[in-house]
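Example record for the data management plan.
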Amino acid sequence: MVLKKFKTGRGHTVSLERRFYNYLYLTRSIGGDLSKIENVPEKLLIEMENFIKRNSLINPASFIDGSPVYYCCPKCLKAYSLQTIKKMSLGKEVKELIKELLICESGHNNYFIDDGNLRFLFVS
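Corresponding structural encoding:
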């Protein structure tokens, strides 16, 4: 997999995978072997990052390695991610990987918030 690099406002270049790691670190949602982040498909990481920014509670919450880290509810992120995996037909391996990396529950009683809208989680 080719790591996409992005320039931050401070001139640093940070990979998509590193920004996801920073989010997990900030939210203390880290679980499993973090080197497995490299196995998360890039298109899913992009969707997850867009979700995090779209639903950020603090804009940005922190800076790690010169890159802004946004914060959203990890339970909502996990629910959205699992639903997105199903929509993208990414397979059981990716689903299990996300379940391992995000060590929280999926949503709130089968619901999650996306862009101010309450959504039902169709995936268990």
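Summary line stored alongside the record: The chain has four helices and six strands.
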